[in-house]
Amino acid sequence: MTETEKEMPATAHRSGFVNIVGNPNVGKSTLMNDLVGERISIITSKAQTTRHRIMGIVNTPDYQIVYSDTPGVLKPKYKLQESMLEFSEGALTDADILLYVTDTVEDPEKNKDFLDRVAREKIPVLLVINKIDLCKSQEELESLVAEWKKRLPNAEIFPTSATEHFNIANLKSRIEELLPAAPPYFGKDALTDKPARFFVTEIIREKLLLHYDKEIPYSTEVLVEKFEEKDRSIHIMAVVYVERDSQKGIIIGKGGAKIKKVGTEARLDIEKFFGKRVFLEIFVKVEKDWRNRENKLRAFGYIE
């Protein structure tokens, strides 16, 4: 127990920012959704899925935890990826608790510079070794834990399986113990800092990631141009932007079949998310080289 924890009255309200960082495809979004208890971040098997910094807020009468899911750390090839890296690096500067997520198969030397910055952090660092259900033996897991202790000697290590919910309760309890005394940063009924439109774009983008191969889904962006909410229904008009004319044809598919499938699946998930009937229209437009154009990145919310 720290001196701060000893001095804190038992009735003091606790609040803190718990930022989740790590390399792509290690299960950060799955972990975030498990910790928050809501489907906040996109989950697919494809890397580089999360593009924004997404907050999920957990409230009780005694505390407020503001979780942030961040894009996977990578060496940028586009201006878009430069913005994504800034979201991840920014998460190191304003966290009360840092969750560094790795898994049982990734190379610990990957993105060593970022890991070195994590090792220098003065705030509590919880190292989450995810996907331990893939370990072949207890000895393999123990060896992995020993290896990570060398790299992040000040971190507390939590072997987990987010998909199996293994050890998540212990991780949650430790986060609650480490929260500093503070008033809530958001309203007690808040679930996230993102507007409703944002989750519509994320759901549509998830379907694009699931239904198209290679570079196609990474060349797309979704913008909601109309979000008209009534008591029992929502009318949404969204645009899928691509970089080339050839990509537009692939997205639409023969006779519009592919985009229709995306629209149907997205609509069902959006209805589940909002608990209302949804009328969804999706259009496809070409915006050449948008990933390297600052004005477009600003319009899509990657640059403030």
State the shape. Answer: globular
Fraction in helix: 25-40%
- The structural class is alpha/beta
- Indicate the radius of gyration in whole angstroms: 20 Å
Gap between N and C termini = 40 Å
Number of helices: 10
Low-confidence stretches: 1-8
Could you spell the SSE succession in H and E letters? HEHEEHEHEHEHHEEHHEH
Give the strand order, joined by hyphens, for the main sheet: 2-3-1-4-5-6
In total, the number of strands is 9
Q: Which strand-content bin applies to the residues?
A: 15-25%
Sheet with the most strands, sense and barrel status: 6 strands, mixed
Residue-averaged pLDDT: 85
Structure, explained:
With 304 residues, the protein is an alpha/beta fold. It has 10 helices and 9 strands. The strands form 2 sheets. A 6-stranded mixed β-sheet has the order 2-3-1-4-5-6, with helices on both faces. Strands 7-8-9 form a 3-stranded mixed β-sheet. Strand 5, helix 5 and strand 6 form a beta-alpha-beta unit. The longest helix has 18 residues. The chain is globular and about 55 Å long. The two termini are 40 Å apart. The N terminus is likely disordered.
Short note summarizing the structure:
The chain is of the alpha/beta class and 304 residues long. The chain has helices at residues 3-7, 28-36, 79-90, 112-119, 138-151, 168-178, 196-211, 245-252, 257-274, 294-299; strands at residues 14-22, 54-59, 63-69, 97-103, 125-130, 156-159, 221-229, 233-242, 277-286. The two termini are 40 Å apart.
